[in-house]
């Protein structure tokens, strides 16, 4: 009982001494031990790392889960150390609605069939999104959280201890200074000076030891950067995989819809029977088509009601064509299109009234429509 009371009294005395030292420093009435420039740089870099890690973590959470209520729910489950329940993605929910609509409106009608095809694609997109969220959470978010909740808490704790050791050190320096000033007036203060000097030596030793511990932890931020760099690469890899899967699913969907569109809209002219994939070169489809020479003739267009061009009648002028390199293979959907092989060179030009996503391509004595985004136009 007495021991505990003495300890509480001692702790209260230390806290009061630190508070007095801190207040006098703020008012410029006491000297303060300054850390060296290298140590200050380590502190600044650690603070910057912590602040940016928090911002990146929060925004990545928003990217993966835009719904704030869902994020709060996931946070509570995590704090309670319980498994987060599986949640249907927006794509999967849309797929469910489309499938139900097709069932009610007629799955054998053109609209119903298309709804079912799109529903299947949206379901695949939802599954890809779910995999991406899981992979990104494990490989990117979890390491960032571990740093903030583990390493950074340790660093903060040691920094607080260092601050306390510095306050103790400066308080000892102030007491020694007062003792020496009193000693100059009376010889009775010799014991007080010796005591103050002994306390100062102990405080200096504890401060130096704590400064070294804190310095080592701060220098470990470099290893944190290396770890976060590796996690960032994993995040980009998972995001790349996700978008590649989405692209493949949508490309397959467009091919399915394009192959059936001719039977649904038999009077359609050009540019809808095969999807135009995202451009792989720096030239956008619209810009590329706008710079293509146009054959000054409309007689070559198909008469109304026909689904294909009269390709045999197309005769481009010698000065009205350009060369293009094929970026990747393309399978012709019908006889009006030209099949392509990656890396081959073909001649291309446009016709008045054509869809800007398509051009006429020629290879030897063969010609047909080709999608612009499968090509790299050469000067």
UniProtKB/TrEMBL annotation:
Organism expressing this protein natively: Sapajus apella
GO terms for cellular component: cytoplasm; membrane
Subunit structure: Homodimer, and heterodimer with SH3GLB1.
Record family assignment: Belongs to the endophilin family.
Protein name: Endophilin-B2
Superkingdom per UniProt: Eukaryota
Compartment list: Cytoplasm
Encoding gene, per UniProt annotation: SH3GLB2
Chief location bin: cytoplasm
Ranges in a coiled coil: 179-213
BP GO terms, sorted: membrane organization
InterPro entries the record matches: AH/BAR_dom_sf, BAR_dom, Endophilin_B2_SH3, Endophilin_SH3RF, SH3-like_dom_sf, SH3_domain
SUPFAM superfamilies: BAR/IMD domain-like, SH3-domain
Residue ranges constituting the SH3 domain according to the UniProt record: 319-379
Matches recorded under Pfam families: BAR (PF03114), SH3_9 (PF14604)
This protein's UniProt keywords: Coiled coil, Cytoplasm, SH3 domain
BAR domain location: 24-266
